[in-house]
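Below is how a single chain appears once it has passed through the pipeline. First comes the sequence as given, then the structure the pipeline wrote out for it. We keep one example in the README because the format questions we get most often are answered faster by looking than by reading.
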Amino acid sequence: MQFSFTDLGVPADLAAVLSRRGIDAAFPIQAATLPDALAGRDVAGKAPTGSGKTIAFGLAVAARVAAGKPGRPTALILAPTRELADQISREVEPLAAARGRRVAVAYGGVGYGAQTSALRRGVDVLVACPGRLEDLIQRRDVDLSDVGIVVLDEADRMADMGFLPVVRRLLDQVRPDRQTLLFSATLDGEVEKVARDYQHDPVRHEAAAEARSVGEVVTHVWRVKQEDRIDLLVDVVLRTGSVIAFCRTRHGVDRLAKKLNAAGVGAANLHGGRAQNQRDRALHAFTTGRLPVLVATDVAARGIHVDQVACVVHFDPPADPADWVHRSGRTGRAGEPGIVVGFVPKQDEHAVRKLLGKVGVDAQITAPDLDLLGAVRPVRVDAGRPPAEPAAEPVPAEASKPRRDQRPDGQPKRPKRPSQHRPGTPRHKRRRRSRAGV
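Resulting structure:
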C-alpha cells in the first residue's frame, strides 16, 4: 500500500517541495519512520542505500528544526564521507529553505574558510563528517550545545571506518533531551551499542532490501582473463551507457581510468588519494552525463547516490561480501532497473562463489555473453572524454640529451655562485666565524 506524504503527517509546504520534483508517494522506509520522527521520537531505521532514507530524515529535520544562532546549529546530520555529506546537504536544503532554515556542510579535504564563514553567518542545519566537525569545535568555530535533533546516517559505514569514537564525543556535546534518528544497513555490533547508549526508547523500523520487482536488477558473473577485462568493459559501456566500475586499490582505479580514456571511453577516477576539488569534478562529470564511466574504490564510493546508473561492474571482485552489496546498490536505485556484472579471474572463482552464497545472489559464473546486455547503443562513448593534457613537443633524437650548460628541460642552467671558501681557511672554522657575525 502506498501513502502520500501528507497521509504520513508531513506538512503541506514540505510535501509540495517533493511534489515539484515528481515525488508524491512514500517509499517503505519513509512510510515506516516518518510518523514517529515527526512526533519527536527517537528512531533506529535499518535500511540500505537507495531506499529513500535521506528524504525520510530530511523531512523530519526540516519540520522540527528551530532557528539557530551564529556558530550554534540546532540540527546536526553526521555522515561518513564527504560525498555523502555533500549530497545530503543538497537534498535537505530545499526542504529547509521552505521553512526559512539554512543548511551548511562541513567536511575535510578542503580549506576551513568557506565553512567557518557559513557558520558565522548562522546555520540551522549542519551536515558534517565527524573528523572535520571535531576540528571545527576545537577551533571554536561551532558549538553543539543548542542541537536538538541529531541524525546518524550510514552508521554501519562510520563503524567500519573507525569514526564511532569521534561520533560518541560529538554526541556528548549536544543537548541531553535531543531527538536522535539513526539509519544503518545493520543494527548490530557497535551500531547497536551506540543506539543503546545515545537513544531514548527508540522505535525500530526495517525496510526490506531495496523494494524492487523481480528482474529489475539482473546480475551476471563472468569468467574473464585479466588481459581481456579492459576490452570487455568497453563493450559493457557501449551496451549500457552509464557504468560505475570498482577496483580494489587507488592505483588500480587510476590505471583503469587511464586505459579507458586511451580507448576512447571517457572515464573519471574517484578515490581517497585525490584532492576534494578533483573528486567533486569527477563526480560532477559522471552525474551530469558528460563522462559515461566512473571508476572508484569501495571507500570513495560510500554514500554516492546517483540515480539512473545503468550498470555496476565489479572489475576487481571484492573480498568482503558487504562490499559486493554496497557496490551493487549503486544501480537499480529507488525501483529503477539496473545491471550488475562481475569480472572473475579463474583463480578467484572459488572465493567469489562463496561470496555470492553469503550475499544471496543466485548467479552462475559463466563465459561473457554481451547479448544479455542488449544492443550497442548509437552513442559516441568518447563524446565526453576529458581534454587531454597538452602533449610535450617531440624532442629530436640528437637533442634528447641536454648539454652541460642546460637543464633537462633545455633551459640554460643558472650560473653557480662563487665559493665563499677562502684558501687556507678550514671550512669548519669559516662556518664558525660566519655564525659569530664575522
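The first strand starts at residue 43 and ends at 46.

See the next section for the split statistics.
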